[in-house]
Design brief:
Blueprint: H1 2-6, H2 9-27, E1 33-37, H3 39-50, E2 56-60, E3 86-91, H4 99-111, E4 116-121, H5 137-153
Length: about 160
């Protein structure tokens, strides 16, 4: 957490842009996605607004609400600026991401006409894909299928 507290949007998005330049130069990648977990999931969502030309963004349980004195905007606040399609993957039992926040983000993306899909896994906690993978294998397998289908097709609603 001390490192997370030291991050700023300006520095993180500059790092993503520099990484993208290097990736495209060294691999000739034509389609680039930003994928993140937790804090990185929130950054992935916000990258849709901050990084032009992305093929898409994927956020695993990226927090959607805003805390007092936080420098990071809430993703829904940036939906009008977003350009890349969005896939959001959430645990239904994640107290840090209430259903109302997921719904607000979904509505903001719909209003902004951003192609998107929000998937919530009932009973799954925060970090279901990494920390509790063994207990949530079915949900994790489904989430990974969705990520791969999105990256292949460019459609965040695809499942295969």
């Amino acid at each position: 957490m001390p490192h997370v507290r030291q991050t700023t949007p300006k520095i993180v998005f500059a790092d993503i842009a520099a990484s993208r330049v290097k990736l495209e130069k060294e691999t000739k990648a034509r389609r680039v996605f930003v994928l993140g977990f937790c804090f990185g999931g929130r950054i992935a969502f916000l990258s849709s607004a901050e990084q032009p030309g992305l093929a898409g963004v994927v956020g695993f349980y990226g927090r959607l609400g805003k805390r007092e004195n936080e420098v990071w905007p809430a993703p829904a606040e940036q939906a009008a600026r977003m350009r890349a399609p969005v896939l959001g993957l959430f645990g239904g039992e994640d107290p840090s991401i209430p259903p109302g926040d997921v719904s607000a983000f979904d509505k903001a993306l719909t209003s902004a006409k951003i192609k998107h899909h929000m998937e919530t896994y009932p009973g799954a906690p925060h970090s279901f894909f990494d920390r509790t993978f063994n207990e949530h294998k079915k949900e994790s397998d489904d989430a990974w299928r969705r990520v791969l289908a999105f990256m292949r097709s460019g459609d965040p609603a695809k499942t295969a």
